[in-house]
């Protein structure tokens, strides 16, 4: 008998700002809007605080995709934080392309009142992660061939 | 004795024709103009890895010109050799009886077909003129005496349309101080502009051969497209006249125009001679000479 | 300061392919300023390597450390204590630092940056060359513009015949160095400097590898001369 392969449920890390995106996400939750349960939110005061290393570490930790979301250009609560985040995300994309992990990082702008947009963003990133497949550092979670054989034996008896 | 020097010092009108060293060892095409035109032309000019593109050594080509019965004018650039090699080449030229030399800095290495090669420029054109003159006075660049004494007729380049002009004129004077006895210019198309420039030169008595060029199809296209980026300018009406025509027609018209320029230059006594560039083609040179009445 | 550029990632990854445990050493001076090899860049490179090797189901143990600068023994001596634990070292310093570490500790060492030039910091991320360390500085003669560095041909009696609209024939984005020299000297009333013929450059004083001993220390290092 063959064990069914584990279903791939993307793990997406969302680095968001307090004043805009988190507020929108919170509102989406209160309004019971439905969206894939793939996102874990890391709440920053401002996306300007995001370090490129945080993004790379997110992938090291096993994220299949990372989304960064802040205030709309011109509306950053801390004036320019989101602009800096934009530059950093662009550079991080280059670094990820270099190592063959392209396409898994994106930045979005979600205004505080725009809960539907938050839902769209999560759906989009989830779709992307599904298409790209699990990130390589998660492959360690696959079964060892011996383990698989042992499991099959146990299930048979 | 250099025929070029003789003609110029006697106040004659020198005609120098530029031939094209091959990227290879087949020299028949390069030498074709020599055998056909040696009676009508003062000297045949041999560039040295022109535009930083590989060509058969100018020294060797100069010797071949001699053997074909022509008088050579050999270029020596500073780009590809250090001072030791430059001096050595100069002695070599002298030993082969190659007297006429054009000493230039040389187009930068990245502009040519060996962009990754090391650009040397151990000497610049002014220093090279000094070195060459020093050799004619019996010593090398470190002051050691030579056996025998080379004889050279030294030339350099001056850019009438340099922008800015002042630094170029300063350099022109330095070249004369360093030993330049004649100059050639990049192609000229506007004789009036050239005349005005020559009149206000600090040393108007020095011998100048005006560059005259037959433009090719690629150059006309560039000029028409507005992407022209050279140290000489091409008049818009000439470009219009030539644009869109077949390559051979462009060359033919260009040769006719060149011939007319040469004629006017000679009649108006605006220069001591001309330096003709026509893709190294005998037929085009003949056309120019005919149109100029030479 | 010295400006460097980080090597393409693929090249660095290939360098350390044979190893299982490496140390990445950063430098906190020049390469940190030009964002090529400082503490931050060490962290990014380590992370990139882990991720890239993870893609191939490989593991690489990576130590990370950044010292003040790698061209001073006092800062790299402490590395000796634990460098033996690693199979190989990636140094993110300029060529001088990479070599100094190798002279100190006997492990295969790999450079993570290509050292570019001696230059200046115009603004974050924007660095331009100024000096070629020719050991014969002409700046006092040429109105503060280096003919050896700023002119690609290094002409001492420029300009060449390739200037178009005051721009360099090798790079039309750049102003002709001798056009600038002329302008500066004219402004300073010192154009005579440009009228004199500058002699051939003495390359022999810059034979590599060079040594400089400060006059005050001549007695101490007599043996080195």
TrEMBL record, chain A:
Protein origin, superkingdom: Bacteria
Pfam family, one: FlpD
Upper lineage: Bacteria, Pseudomonadati, Thermodesulfobacteriota, Desulfobaccia, Desulfobaccales
Domain F420-non-reducing hydrogenase iron-sulfur subunit D residue range list: 12-133
Designated name of the protein: Hydrogenase iron-sulfur subunit
Keywords, sorted A to Z: Iron, Iron-sulfur, Metal-binding, Oxidoreductase
Entry coiled-coil feature ranges: none
GO molecular function: iron-sulfur cluster binding; metal ion binding; oxidoreductase activity
Organism: Desulfobacca acetoxidans
UniProtKB/TrEMBL annotation, chain C:
Limits of the Methylene-tetrahydrofolate reductase C-terminal-like domain: 110-200
Pfam families attached to this UniProt entry: DUF5981 (PF12225)
Protein's name in the database: Methylene-tetrahydrofolate reductase C-terminal-like domain-containing protein
């Amino acid at each position: 008998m063959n064990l069914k392969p584990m279903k791939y449920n993307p793990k997406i890390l969302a680095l968001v700002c307090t004043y805009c995106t988190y507020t929108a996400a919170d509102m989406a939750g209160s309004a019971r809007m439905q969206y894939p349960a793939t996102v874990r939110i890391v709440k920053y005061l401002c996306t300007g605080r995001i370090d490129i290393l945080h993004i790379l570490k997110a992938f090291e930790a096993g994220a299949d995709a990372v989304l960064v979301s802040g205030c709309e250009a011109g509306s950053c609560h801390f004036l320019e934080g989101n602009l800096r985040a934009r530059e950093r995300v662009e550079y991080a994309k280059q670094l990820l392309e270099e190592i063959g992990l392209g396409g898994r990082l994106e930045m979005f702008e979600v205004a505080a009142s725009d809960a539907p947009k938050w839902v769209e963003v999560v759906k989009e990133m989830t779709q992307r992660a599904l298409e790209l497949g699990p990130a390589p550092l998660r492959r360690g979670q696959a079964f060892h061939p011996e383990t698989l054989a042992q499991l099959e034996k146990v299930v048979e008896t | 004795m250099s025929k070029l020097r003789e003609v110029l010092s006697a106040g004659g009108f020198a005609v120098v024709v530029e031939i094209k060293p091959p990227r290879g060892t087949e020299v028949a095409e390069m030498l074709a103009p020599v055998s056909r035109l040696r009676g009508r032309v003062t000297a045949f000019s041999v560039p040295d890895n022109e535009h930083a593109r590989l060509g058969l050594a100018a020294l060797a080509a100069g010797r071949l010109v001699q053997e074909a019965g022509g008088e050579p004018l050999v270029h020596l650039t500073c780009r590809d050799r250090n001072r030791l090699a430059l001096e050595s080449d100069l002695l070599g030229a002298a030993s082969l009886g190659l007297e006429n030399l054009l000493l230039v800095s040389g187009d930068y290495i990245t502009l040519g077909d060996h962009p990754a090669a090391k650009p040397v420029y151990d000497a610049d054109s002014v220093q090279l003129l000094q070195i060459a003159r020093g050799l004619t006075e019996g010593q090398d660049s470190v002051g050691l005496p030579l056996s025998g004494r080379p004889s050279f007729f030294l030339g350099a380049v001056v850019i009438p349309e340099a922008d800015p002009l002042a630094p170029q004129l300063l350099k022109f004077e330095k070249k004369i101080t360093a030993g330049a006895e004649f100059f050639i210019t990049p192609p000229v198309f506007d004789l009036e502009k050239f005349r005005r420039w020559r009149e206000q030169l600090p040393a108007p008595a020095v011998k100048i051969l005006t560059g005259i060029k037959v433009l090719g199809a690629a150059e006309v296209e560039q000029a028409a497209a507005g992407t022209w980026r050279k140290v000489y300018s091409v008049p818009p009406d000439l470009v219009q006249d030539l644009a869109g025509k077949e390559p051979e027609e462009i060359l033919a018209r260009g040769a006719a125009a060149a011939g007319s320029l040469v004629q006017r230059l000679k009649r108006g006594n605006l220069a001591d001679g001309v330096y003709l560039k026509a893709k190294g083609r005998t037929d085009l040179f003949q056309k120019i000479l005919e149109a100029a009445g030479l | 300061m010295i400006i460097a550029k980080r090597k393409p990632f693929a090249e660095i990854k290939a360098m350390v392919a044979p190893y299982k445990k490496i140390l990445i050493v950063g430098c906190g001076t020049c390469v940190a300023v030009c964002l090529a090899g400082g503490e931050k860049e060490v962290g990014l490179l380590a992370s990139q390597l882990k991720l890239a090797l993870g893609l191939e189901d490989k593991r690489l143990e990576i130590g990370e450390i950044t010292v003040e600068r790698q061209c001073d023994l006092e800062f790299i001596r402490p590395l000796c204590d634990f460098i033996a634990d690693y199979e190989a070292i990636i140094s993110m310093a300029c060529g001088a630092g990479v070599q100094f570490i190798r002279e100190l500790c006997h492990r295969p060492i790999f450079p993570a940056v290509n050292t570019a030039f001696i230059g200046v910091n115009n603004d974050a991320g924007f660095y331009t060359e100024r000096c070629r360390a020719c050991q014969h500085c002409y700046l006092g003669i040429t109105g503060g513009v280096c003919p050896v560095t700023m002119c690609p041909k290094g002409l001492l009696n420029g300009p060449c015949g390739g200037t178009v609209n005051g721009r360099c024939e090798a790079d039309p984005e750049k102003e002709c160095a001798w056009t600038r020299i002329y302008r500066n000297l004219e402004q300073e009333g010192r154009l005579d400097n440009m009228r004199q013929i500058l002699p051939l450059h003495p390359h022999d004083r810059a034979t590599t590898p060079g040594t400089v001993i400060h006059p005050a220390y001549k007695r101490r290092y007599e043996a080195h001369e």
